[in-house]
Amino acid sequence: MMIRKPRWAQIGASLVASIAQSKIEVSMSTPGSLWRRTVVLFAVLSGSALPSLASADDVDRLMNLAKAHLENRESAKAVEVLAEVLKANPTSTAALRNLARAHLIARQYEAAVEALAQAEKLEPDSPSTAYLKGLALLRLSRFDQAIGPLETAVRGDPNTAALRYQLACAYEGVGRDEKAGEQFHETLRLDPLHAGAYFKLAAQARKANQPEEVEKYQNEFVRLRRLLGEAARSAEAFEQCVHTRPEGAVIPARRDDRAATKAALEVRFEDATDAVFPAGPRSHDLGHPRGAAAAAVIEVDAEGRCAIFAADGDPGVPGLSVMRLSKEGVFERKAVESPGAPGLKGPVRVFAADYHDDVPPGVRYDAKIHALTDVLLVGSDRLYLLKQTAPGVFSDVTRQSGLPEGGANTARWIDYEHDGDVDLLLARQDGLQLWQNNGDGRFEDVTQRVGIQPTGPAVDAAIGDLDGNEAVDFVVARGMAPTLVYLNQRAGRFALMSEPPGPWPPASRAIINDLDNDGRLDTVLLGPKEATLQFGGTGGPIRIDLGGLDATTVALIDYDNDGWLDLCFAGGLDAHAESRRAGIRLFRNPGFRASPPPEWRDASEPTKLADLNLPPIRDAIAADIDGDADSDLLLTDANGRLHFLRNAGAHANGQLKLRLLTVKTNPTGVGTHIELRKNDFRIVRQMTELPIEIGVGGRKILDSLQTIWTNGVVDNQIDVTVGNAPLTIIEKNVATGSCPFLYAWDGKRFRFVTDILGNAPLGLSLRRDVILPADADELALIGPADGFPSQNGTYTVAVTSEFCEVLYLDFVRLLAVDHPSDVEVHSTDKIMPPPFPPSEVWALGNPRRLIRAEGSDPGALGDRTETLRAADGVFAPPGLALPPPFRGMCHPMSLTLDFGPLDTDRPLVLALTGWLQYGQASTNIALSQSSRVEVIPPLLEAEAADGAWVPVNVAVGMPAGKTKTILCDLAGKLPPGARRLRLTNTFEIRWDRAALFERRTLPPERVIELPLAAADLQWRGFSEIKSRAEGHPTTPDYDVVFANPPWRGTLEGWCTRYGNVLELVAARDGRLAIVNGGDSMTLRFAPPLAKGGLGEVGPDAPGFPPPPKGFTRTFFFYSVGWDKDADANVVDGNTVEPLPSEGPPGPADFEADPADWRLRYNTRWMPKDRFQSPK
After folding, report:
1. Out of 173, 339, 526, 1094, which residue is the most buried by the measure of CB atoms under 10 Å away?
2. How far is CA 1087 from CA 2, 765, 1099, 1118, in A?
3. From CA 538, how far away is CA 738, in angstroms rounded?
4. What whole-number distance in Å separates Cα of residue 1110 and Cα of residue 1096?
5. What Cα–Cα distance (Å) separates residue 99 from each residue in 40, 52, 108, 1173?
6. Better-scored residue on pLDDT, 73 or 15
């Protein structure tokens, strides 16, 4: 007897079975074919293999977990989790769509179609399901089958341009040009900035022989292409839209006040001032026990208690102190010695950040020891900068800092150019000023240089990435004048937002964070008697009537720990009375995701804040002062006294405290984005100042905690336990930019060879407005023939772009060099300044034995002889590394090489093998600003006969990235009687071998050029990249590939479409293959025939005989191209355009000619948010 299951059970069982059996095949019929790769997703699932999930919360948690795993590039784990979701809830169409998205990323298009077919049975009219199915079928080139689902998607969502565009592409694929044209026009109606539609219409007009239409559409396409950048608010991705974004747990439209979340707690604030401040006589050093004109949190200890820096409020008393609440519940104040510290005139404010880490000479930098928070005191008459030199010990560095005379209204720490240290934004009576941190303890006024215009009096400023381009912006409050918004254009430039969403009202204070937990930053503007909330996403502005309160400050505080930031306004109630009293208004965040949003309700009465009888308040700090897991209020009044309001009740909802330990970004972590998820609960924060305290609404364990550092690197922690002790998050040391990778087919697999084009960066800033010249030619050593066999008559390599970067490849060739077996051959290419010599292969013989190699390290540590005698993968250490932000730089290190007496009449060549730890454009900017860091490119000296060291007139250069050999031609350049060589530099170069040879003649007939036979561009993904040992370079594993990188963005623009690109890279003609992050190009080279042409019969063809007896064949890869990464200080580092050129720059014109390579090839749009998660 057969028992028929319900329909939903059949769907679930069939889908789980298909998932369980699905694999990503790993096959290679020829090395030129791309890997159709996958890992076994998981073993065959039995009915008992998965736990029984009873609650919706469990499913929500797993949906969030799958999302976090995908963001961590752990796609196999994500698929496992999705299987659990579907086991518990077989009718979850969101899980089915996520499964399909995973298959699309892994290029398992058939599997994606199958999953979507199951979802289609459950939700026949879902535009998301239909759209994803259409995309999968398009990728399979089943244009006729894709039309139906895409038409369904357009019916369900007629107002999303991406859907119209893809439907048009399907029509175009089956030759229905008229229908395609209609949809391309509809795309432009919905999105007038959709450059892709203009591109397609230009192609259609060319096909129809309509030159005027071609010119019209081409001109618009070119215009939009030039505008498509972060500041221009470019079009959505061709495929990417709301329907392609992975789905987590469904976030409610507004706050869920279910009893389980404990969100609706009874919370009150108690005036505990007398209890926490000890009574007693006035201290000579500290003044009144409660005296403070200003205060700020500078540290959160391991137990979650705050350390507070306070400046005494008594006139003429320069008392500075650090306060902590003891375990007995009493403030302990330790005086800060401040020689010459004047009494600052009010209003005084305190701003804390780690602006500069002094590391003693000879000491290795350790963030846990040297990263200490410094303090800036701002008065109306002057600034006062204190450097924390040891825990609780401060030194006055105001004079040597270079900061301006006079005071300011307020200040903000901001890493405006993303060079790894915090700069200073000052709001002053004479306008807004930006003071650049030069990394040496000094600041420089760069206000005009960065594009800040005269603003008139500036009374406050707030910082945050308002437009989502991973560059920090700022808002300027100007009292009675309209508020201004400056958007960061990257590469050290700002521009006024010319068309804000409605007029931004005047304000005396401004703060920025995410009020509605939608991932977009919002702004609070405090005006007379009211506040205005400007929302970064949908909704707003909202105005809050303060009911007669003359507010002087506003603080963000999640007072009930429900996960939503509330607003606390403080000041005085009566601006005209001689004796005023404090007014405090607390407004509870309604937790909205709807329009119109619910009202922000005044919670001052139920929290007892309305009952307080205090003097008018000047400023407020929201922090967990007493360490009981809820945020208290520490107030400074107009008389220079502190008041402590203890939060009673919110601790029951729980609070997560975070400490950020950075590696590459600014030491305080200013600007870091934080997101928490638990089931359908989502919290988003931006780090602007200490402390980082996030209410969790009674949740004990969070599904995921995501940290997005200011360089775009993403990190996720799974199953985070909420406790009272702070959780320390250590920044990942992830390289987001480097160089393209070269792999060679060794007969079984693709073997990593090296990186290429390290001396051909585009837009790489050496210092502001000075760009490093690029050398587009490079010969890269592949190795001997026994490690690079031919297959089916061809030699195969792969070139990949695996960082947040773009490769522009113009020309490639393979060289086979036959040389005597006792002779080495190497490329002359290296990182060096212009003029660039031609790329050549040199033959080296008659090696000299290295007698001794000695570093300038003290004592026995300096002996590097055994390490440098052979290229064996054992690397000599460089000089002592400099602290952040000087990545890749060291203290000066000299290496003395003794090869015995040098015959200076011989054609000597010094061959140095090693690898360079790349810095970035931001590192260069930081170096250019510092007067304390000595930059010494490799400098070679020779010891003359009299023992004096004299410079050798040779450009030593540096290896371009991973382990390479660079050559220094010493012929005719050494002084007579030279005995030893000395190499000095401050770059982090780890040398493997130092060898001395004589140059040998290499007959031209021994260098055989193998032309390109095939070039195929496809999506591949991102290899696992890691170092196999300490001191070794990081290298990729070709066989371990992830669909998503550990960063969010990519360079936006038109890239080469996938498929055959032989025409683009077969000749040096300026036609470029544009290869974005995650792309791979497989190149096959065929041996020449005796009379030219491409070989068909393998390496033993007449034109490619084996090397003579006693000779070895070594292969080199020759390329012409450029590389550009997305570092914030790379010029145009956020877009693919402008394209590089070897000739003089000219307009990017497009001729109405079918041979125009850009119109024919650059048809693949890469959006900036390609790897971002949905909001």
Report:
1. 526
2. 65, 41, 6, 15
3. 37
4. 27
5. 15, 20, 11, 15
6. 73
CB < 8 Å & 24+ apart, contacts of 151-157: 152/125, 152/127, 153/127, 153/128, 153/243, 154/127, 155/125, 155/127, 156/125, 156/126, 156/127, 156/130, 157/127, 157/131, 157/243
Contact yes or no for 979/787 (Cβ under 8 A): no
Q: Are 617 and 570 in contact (CB under 8 A)?
A: yes
Give residue 661's identity as a one-letter amino acid code. L
> Using CA atoms, how far apart are residues 694 and 428, in angstroms rounded to an integer?
32
Task: Yes or no: say if 1158 and 1055 are a contact pair by the CB < 8 Å rule.
Answer: no
Cβ contacts of residue 1073 below 8 Å, gap of 6+?
807, 808, 809, 810, 1015, 1017, 1056, 1061, 1064, 1065, 1081, 1161
DSSP category for residue 737: -
What are the tens digits of pLDDT across the range 33-69?
A: 322 222 222 322 233 333 444 466 677 778 777 776 6
Per-residue model confidence as pLDDT tens digits over 969-1016: 999 999 998 989 999 999 999 999 999 999 999 998 899 999 999 999
Strands, sheet with 617-623, edge to edge from the N-terminal-most edge strand:
268-271, 642-648, 632-637, 617-623
How far, in Å, CA of 224 to CA of 226, rounded? 5
- Closest CA relative to residue 956, chosen from 981, 928, 925, 926: 981
pLDDT digits (tens, 9 = 90+) for 842-853: 999 999 999 999
Nearest-angstrom CA–CA distance, 348 and 343:
10
| Residues 994 and 850: beta-carbon distance below 8 Å | yes
Per-residue pLDDT, averaged over 275-282, amounts to 70
Residue 990: count of CB within 10 angstroms of its CB: 19
Distance CA 1171, CA 554 (A): 36
C-beta of residue 554 within 8 angstroms of C-beta of residue 531? yes
Residue type at 968? Answer: C
Q: What is the pLDDT of residue 1051?
A: 87
Higher pLDDT, 266 or 225: 266
- The answer to whether the bond into 606 is cis (omega within 30° of 0) is no
| Strand arrangement of the beta sheet that strand 852-855 belongs to | 852-855, 889-898, 980-987, 939-943, 949-951
Q: Tokens 């590089």: give the residue.
A: 1140
Q: Is there a contact between 524 and 567 (Cβ–Cβ < 8 Å)?
A: yes
SS3 1117: strand
Residue 395 confidence (pLDDT) = 87
**Pair 1012, 1065: CB distance under 8 Å:** yes
Residue 764 DSSP label = B
Q: Which residues of 517-556 are buried (b: 16+ CB within 10 A; e: fewer)?
A: bbbbbbbbbbbeebbbbbbbbebbbbebebeebbbbbbbb
CA-CA distance, 213 to 200, in Å (whole number)?
Answer: 12
The candidate with the shortest Cα–Cα distance to 510, out of 488, 531, 486, 489, is 531
User: Encoding tokens for residue 275?
Assistant: 């209890």
What pLDDT, on a 0 to 100 scale, did the predictor assign at position 363? 67
Tokens read off for 326? 């003891």
Structure-token pair, residue 293: 């004109």
Burial group, residue 474, by CB count within 10 angstroms (0-12, 13-18, 19+):
buried
Whether omega for the bond prior to residue 360 falls within 30 degrees of 0, making it cis, is no
Instruction: Give the angle subtended at the CA of 18 by the CAs of 13 and 21, to the nearest 5°.
Output: 125
Distance of CA 106 to the CA centre of its chain: 23
